[in-house]
Design goal:
four-stranded mixed β-sheet, 111 residues, single chain, 2 helices, two-stranded antiparallel sheet, elongated
Length: 111
């Protein structure tokens, strides 16, 4: 079950941006979107490169396995730039590979 959170001082007027993020992550990982949990948090208090004026995004993605980490990073970076108007060089991403035995969905462990 992938969990993705975007924290940004950029902005999107798209009320469906979390749903779009969930679909992008599902496609990138080759997993059903029904397993994806996506959240977008906006904060004017985020500072990238030492400045709140610099627009960036901090993205955390945890999943059971990754097909191709670089492809996932590329997709998430493009998504942040296109949807939040942030600078590509200020998109920071943390990927966490979770053991299936530590992840549950609907009350059932995956491993």
């Amino acid at each position: 079950m992938p969990f993705v959170t975007v924290k940004t001082n950029g902005f999107s007027n798209d009320v469906n941006v979390s749903e779009k993020l969930a679909n992008v992550v599902a496609d990138a990982l080759g997993k059903p979107v029904s397993y994806v949990c996506a959240e977008v948090k906006y904060s004017e208090n985020l500072a990238f490169g030492g400045s709140k004026q610099s627009k960036g995004a901090w993205i955390e993605l945890a999943s059971i396995g990754f097909r191709n980490k670089q492809a996932v990073v590329d997709v998430l970076t493009d998504f942040a730039v296109e949807n939040f108007g942030v600078e590509r060089s200020l998109v920071c991403i943390a990927l966490t590979d979770l053991p299936a035995s530590d992840v549950a969905h609907g009350g059932h462990l995956f491993g």
